[in-house]
């Protein structure tokens, strides 16, 4: 099966999963007399992105001296894409945001399939896409959010690393770095892989190709450029962006804030969203341990590890941490391989597992968007 045909299969499977999820969400929204497309296209951060797309940067909300929300916290690639779509089509900001996110999610699904297929075969590649489309927070992949854009660039950058196309890997990593703060994970993966490859070539007394060094140099440029641009705009070149994030309530404190929140969560009665987020974070740690035990390729370990470190080590918006891990698709490799083995030995068992995951994903996604009214 050619890469193009295989990508078509992956895209079809993913589209089927997410279409079913949107249908369940639509039924829940109509039952509450709300518009599903409005909920998907204009919820929480998507409103900020659409404001940047329409008017550029410059919006700031003041809540109290220590809580100031500036749109400089949001990276520029996604609103730039939305602005392009609104300029060349009659679509409004919400519809354009959904079009960008849905297209990016499809491209990401194809990239995830390509990575899984190259490493473990087409069965694992397809299963990896199914599991990614059925995560509890996979509803975000159908919203006007940036996670699909980051995942698309990340998946194809990792595929380029695995196939030795260093310039593509570095260029895509740079674009990933322009899409989200945790996009730096892609650059870290490319740099780690480049250093390992250079060391391997050196041990064989060979010479590294210029493309390898060029790709490594390109990888961190997108993330670094935006962080420095915000720093220059705020008057603090190296610290300005991180101060913007701090005033949003987000900072990297080696997990102290997350541990404090988790401790309070375990002793207090609270909404479903928060214990669910805690459970998902714990599962992510376990899946990463399994990925390490499976001896996954270094780029996948570094990419997933950096995403997990940022999610665990950052404080603020605990309920959003599962969303931050949506791009960490390599964490799904161990369960995907296990599910493929189960499907070969006991097909009905695998079918029950997939149906159960689908029910959880569709029901919880509808709950998050329509009922919970909790920031995503």
UniProtKB/TrEMBL annotation:
Intracellular or extracellular location(s): Endoplasmic reticulum membrane
GO molecular function: alpha-1,6-mannosyltransferase activity; GPI mannosyltransferase activity
Membrane topology annotation: Multi-pass membrane protein
Recorded metabolic or biological pathway in which this protein acts: Glycolipid biosynthesis; glycosylphosphatidylinositol-anchor biosynthesis
KW Kinase (keyword) present: no
UniProtKB keywords: Endoplasmic reticulum, Glycosyltransferase, GPI-anchor biosynthesis, Membrane, Transferase, Transmembrane, Transmembrane helix
GO BP terms in the entry: GPI anchor biosynthetic process
TM stretches of this protein: 128-146, 153-176, 211-229, 272-293, 300-318, 352-373
Key word Endoplasmic reticulum present: yes
Record-level GO cellular component terms: membrane
Identification of the protein by name: Glycosyltransferase RgtA/B/C/D-like domain-containing protein
